[in-house]
Amino acid sequence: MRQNNLLKILAALALGACPASVFAELVDINTPGTSLILDAREGEPLKILYYGDRLSAQDAAALQDGGGAINLNAYPVYGLQPMAEAALSVTHADGNRTTDVAVTGVSKSTDADGGEVTTVAMKDRYYPLEVNVNYRTYPGDEVIETWVDVKNGEKGTVTLNRFMSGYLPVRYGDVWMSSLYGTWADETNLTEEPLTHGVKMIKNKDGLRNSHTSHSEVMLSLDGKPRENTGRVIGAALCYPGNYKLFVDTDDGNYHHLFAGINEENSEYHLKKGESFTTPELALTYSDEGLGGVSRNFHRWGRAHRLHAGDKERKILLNSWEGVYFDINEPVMAGMMEDIASMGGELFVMDDGWFGDKYPRDVDNSSLGDWVVDTKKLPNGINGLLEEAKKNGIKFGIWIEPEMTNTVSELYEKHPEYIVKAPNREVVKGRGGTQLVLDLANPKVQDLVFEVVDTLMTKYPAIDYIKWDANAPVMEHGSQYLTADNQSHLYIDYHKGLEKTLDRIRAAHPDVTIQACASGGGRANWGFLPWFDEFWVSDNNDALQRVYMQWGTSYFYPAIAMASHISASPNHQTFRRIPVKFRADVAMSGRLGLEMQPRNMSDEDKAVCRQAIADYKTIRPIVQFGDLYRLQSPYDKKGVASLMYVTPAKDDAVFYWWKLDTFMGQQLPRIPMAGLDPDKTYRVHELNRIDNEPLPFEGKTFTGRYLMSNGLEMPLTYKVDYNKNTDFSSRVLRLTAL
Ligand code: DGJ
Fold this sequence. Notes:
By secondary structure, the protein is α+β, with helices and mostly antiparallel strands. The protein contains 13 helices and 37 strands. It is globular. Bound molecules: (2R,3S,4R,5S)-2-(hydroxymethyl)piperidine-3,4,5-triol.
């Protein structure tokens, strides 16, 4: 009988039923390699029975009523048994703080993106409060997205006190959590720690930049200390660009309890009669190929369904920021365009400092909001620059920070009511001592932000790229737009407003490339990327530290989304001197760009960059669309880090090797490769070569089997003229199947 139900669901799925009620006790949500099994009996709470490796219909059916199933509430609600953590906590219109939901139906539908959505409808047993738990899968992808809709059918206002996107019980054991933490110029450091009793929480309360400190993604290694290519691992990524909370509660029972959602602190949400609330999605994935398997699952899914234009190659660009900072003027911009074009680059991005009329933006303390060209700096305006770009055969991009203003700006003079501010308080100011955040909860501000982009793009349709920056947190809790009783909506309504605005922008301008930047890497989140083509990883371009930062970022994000630039030496943040070859070899493991004044580069350095750009063009599809295999972690402190990208057909690959420190007599491990086809034969070719003579294996062929068992022996230094020796060393190899 249960198996029949399961078959009915599978049949409905196969037919792409849209939407069809397929009410059944056993709900089986499958990806090609994983299964999430739920028990959805009418009149009972929804139970989760299993999440992991794909189950046969027979095993799935055997889980019900025992058989080693988890059998815990799939979306625990607060009130009855209030000592346990809950995903949803509600105060009903009559003040009752308990909720007790039971399943009323299960339906399946297909969405516009080809996703298959399973919705388990639940209702409070007494109150007309509906709670729908949704699960979405995409054919061929290993990620299950889950989210919840809460609808208030009560006579009065219901308050949501906690409203998590999802909950997942993970069997108690030697479970380790991998997560990322950081700060400005030191983003995405990796932490790996065992889950012990108590609560491990990762959270953000910045309001805008939610990936500077910790990230809203984790991996849970179920078989002890995390391993790269083996072991069972669950990945969880909360797709939300605002304040979040992700925690694991390990109590005295048999499970670690993972909860993830919007951070409810100071954000209780009121629903009037008839109103609904939809949580952001929590993306879950599972792999028995270790951390790497989970990363590849996230990357494939993300490129296909989350990242804007995830199937389009990204251009190689020069950004003006570290080259000239605010010293923008026409001849300098023209020179930079000429230089990047001569090096083979495809795009020039003019960063901060180009705007402001009454208040010119010469430093960081004015003009945000006054998005008019400073004609003293750029007498021929944007059109003049676009002409220049065209002349050089490259595209042109521009920096804006549309969610912000300064006390010193025409916008603020006209509309002081547009900023985030609490009544009876002095305005709290940020960057430059004057920066303020615009209140995106206000529809007029949403219109304003839309118009900033729309006007730019309508006036100058040739603009190819926008760097969208955001350099301040919410600095005081107050909306001048929201009513007194809805002030707690500020953080959430800000993001709802921003999303609406971004929807309008994308509907009007689908093709412009937009980078998400927020004081460096503050906006690396899957919840932001549906509108953005990439994110800025960090304002720290020090290649050595970038090896670590990009390593951590790669746990959840693909190379195509990671803007990675060659900058000057000494580095502007760490003051480290790193040869351009190493800087290029690191930058070309992400979306390659440059960020310096080419006029200050030696001809020799320019030649290395020219070569790197030419070589990157040959491997761009492998890096940007390939599968990542991390081989040797920099965090293992073995003196070397290494990774590779392999095409899905395993017929082409790029191998990266970076030496991280130098000591005489150093013995470095030889790095076996991964992800290749053991039975294919690959020809090896070094990219970005600066050595006087080729590597011993240049042009030779090896089987994938040999390369994956043995790797290749990397020399510890470059073989260059004596005076060109440095303490850095790195290699990039292309492996092409015959
Ligand atoms: C912060 C960004 O992270 C930088 O790359 C640069 O765009 C500056 N803002 C400009 O003010």
